[in-house]
Structures are given as structure tokens and as C-alpha cells.
């Protein structure tokens, strides 16, 4: 009888241990949509490849939406849980009267990520030389175009009167349209800008990120209802991003390129490294996920200057820093 009791107790212990291990190994799947595939988002790919999400018990299902409107549609329709997109989209949604607010909870990039690329070398370039040129612009209402217009106006250039501004090309097709078309100038992200330079298709002559200052260019967003129901998961998600941001700060461009190479298989590692170094040198990668009020106000100024600010949305309405502050504090 004693032996049977001991055997039963052992079985129960093993069962409890198995259940505990199973529970500990369970992961939460987060469906994440990025607005585009960009080297600009290097810390996000580092978080995935270095296992920072995995350490937090999160399995990331990443998809590329190819456009701010498509990314936000996926988030609002609950096709994804988290969106990585420009903060301006949360303001657009708010202005449309959405009952379920879109909350900015973690910032990934803190400057514009585009560079001014010219068809021909411009060794003595000054901004005023853009006047009367044909300029291939970005999508109306998107961050690249709004920042571009903001910078041009800072240099006394009216983009709609002083330039032949073209805005009829989809985001994904802009590089090809510039390469084959008549435009003299274009805004391009990395690594496309450096690739064009290497292939002789264009020449990087200025940085819109350096000219425009800090702005919440790309942030992670969620619906307020999702945040209320999954606060601990979002805290773990933010922790993984913060670890990745610190890792990017502490490692060389070459080491970062090595880690994120799988996301850019068609780009040479040297181009990746030089592009990452360019972004690091101008402070484009946020060193922590906090979106501060000064950045938010700068965003609204840029939108207002472009005539795209639908209403003045207070910082506290669409930005939640409580989770980030707790993550950093711990």
C-alpha cells in the first residue's frame, strides 16, 4: 500500500512538473505589420534575429504591408496586433472619429530616413539649386513627403511652385521611376540610395533626417482595446525592442549588417553596413522606445506646414509612455 501511494505521488509530481514546463514554454504570438521592408528598421530585425522577442516569450509573425494606409487598415480590422508605421497615421485615424484609439507605445526611429539623390554629381550643391528642377516626390500625406516639404520650405523653396513636383508614383515604384524617368532629384531610403550610388544611377547629396531634427518617424502602435487586454504582452514586446535598440547602439555597422542580412538577401553586405553606419551617424535609430512631447510637437508642426494636420491632437491622447518608462526603469 505504501509503495502504491509513493508511486502515485511520484506520478503526480511528474505531471505537475510537466505542466509547469509546458506553461513556461508557451509563447504568445504577435502579428506585426511593418509599413515597408527597410534598413531603417534594423533594430526590429535585430530583436527578432537575436532572440530578444523569444526571451520574452513572444513569437513574431512579421508581414510587410507596403503602405501606411494598408498597414493601418490591417491594424484597425484586427488583421494584425501591432503596426510599425509613421505616427501621423494615428492622428489621421483619430481625426476620423475612431472610437478605439490607435496608441503610439514604442518609438523605433527618431529622424526622417530619406536622402536627397540627384541623377548627376553635385559637388557644389546648395538647396537653392533645386529650384525649377523636376523632383520625384513621395505619397501625399506620408511622412517622407511632409518632411521633404518641411525641409524645402526651411530653405525658402516652395515645393509646389518652385519645383516640377511629381507625386503620381506608388512608394514601391519610386526608385524604378527615378532610374528610368526624367526626374533630376528624388528622396530615397537606404539601402536603395547607396545601391543607386554604387551603380551610377544617382548620387547622395543631402540628408532630410539631418535637416528636419527629431520626429517620431516610425513607431509601434496598437489599438487601445488591445493594450487594455494585453498590457503584460505589450510590456514584454517593448522590452525586446529596447534590448535591440541598446544592442544596435553597442555594436558596429558590420555586426548589425551580419545579423539582419536575411531580410535583405539581394543587397551586398558592404552596402548594408555603409547604410547602417549612415543612419547611426545621424542618430536615426532611437536609443530607447520613448516618444517624447517635443518630438510629437515637431511632428504636428511638420504636418501643419504641409497642410495635412486635420486637428491638433494632444500628446497624451495618442501616446502612452507608461509601459516604456516601466521597462526602462526595470
UniProtKB/TrEMBL annotation:
Cellular compartment(s): Periplasm
Keywords from the named record: Signal
Pfam families: NMT1_2
Recorded coiled-coil stretches: none
Source organism superkingdom: Bacteria
SUPFAM superfamilies: Periplasmic binding protein-like II
Signal sequence residues: 1-24
Family affiliation: Belongs to the bacterial solute-binding protein SsuA/TauA family.
Name of the protein in its database record: NitT/TauT family transport system substrate-binding protein
Organism: Lentibacillus halodurans
